[in-house]
Amino acid sequence: MVWTRRGLIAAGAVVAATPALARAYPAEAALWEVRDDRAKVFLFGDSGPLRSPWRSARFEAALNESAVFWKETPAAGPGANALFMAKGIDPARPLSTWLTPNDRARVVGVASSVGLAPVLLERLRPWLAAVFLDSSFRSHFGFKQENSPEYELSLVAKGAGKLLHTEFPDEAAIVDYFAGFSRAAEVGALLRAVDEIEAGPDVAQRAAEAWAMGDLRPEIQEIRRIGRTYPDYYQAILVARNRRWAPRFRAMLDGETTFVLVGGDHLVGPDSVQNQLAAAGMEARRI
Questions:
Q1: C-alpha angle 166/170/172, rounded to 5°?
Q2: What does R_g of the chain's alpha carbons equal in angstroms?
Q3: pTM above 0.85, yes or no
């Protein structure tokens, strides 16, 4: 099991990847800095899986300058699949019973388009079905977790012996988080995944290229759409978590220089981490 940007995780669905032409991504992604007289914190938003490897000397230099590395989730352990299945499967409530007839048809259509048998999803709760669909979509079209910034920077941090902290302390906490979604938030998670698959891999590739160039406009537009279309999911996946970062940053500024890596969705829109920091009297300056 591999953690990803969109749902924090990608379930262990094994899907044959469709060959894709891979080209190098620019290394101009957005980076912010929060500082006071004692310390500073670098803030970076991950793109998620990419079609070709991502490297940036600028970001590696910022990480090397830091004593502490924060990211969203720990590396998946051998028991992760069992944990997710334990709370992501509900035999008494098939996936189709959560959905309208139109949304059921959409789920079946996108599952088939990425090589995932729809019957496999029927046992899953919507949040875990979203994970399977997202993972299958990215794998099917050549977006690989090992090409992501999170993967690369985690290797650099581990090799340098950086002190590691994670937003979620362990896999059980991640599972409990998703399993605690409201009905509307769960369905929103699933339909967002459906939306992205229906939009297709070219849209995902253009968004990744914009991210790599430091162009936040596609991500801002997407987050605004999510807030309008799936407000309960938006509150659960972004707003509630973004609000928790301000006290963490305050504590970081009392310590050593730190590098914080979160999903790119958390750094755009009216409820972004930067806006939460500003409300708490801390300025995140793009550098």
A1: 145
A2: 18
A3: yes
DSSP secondary structure, 94-149, as one string: -GGGGS-HHHHHHHHHHHHHTT--HHHHTTB-HHHHHHHHHHHHHHHTT-BGGGSH
Classify residue 164 as exposed, middle or buried by CB count within 10 Å of its CB (0-12, 13-18, 19+): middle
**Domain ranges, ordered by start, for the chain:** 31-286
- The separation between the first and the last C-alpha atoms of the chain, rounded to the nearest angstrom, is 34
Q: Give the model confidence (pLDDT) of 52-71 as tens digits.
A: 999 999 999 999 999 999 99
* Distance from chain centroid for Cα 108: 24
Q: Which helix (H) or strand (E) holds 80?
A: helix 80-88
Q: Strands 258-263 and 40-46, how do they pair?
A: parallel
What's the order of all strands across the beta sheet hosting 68-71? 163-166, 68-71, 258-263, 40-46, 31-35, 285-286
For the record, the structure tokens of 192 come out as 């967002």
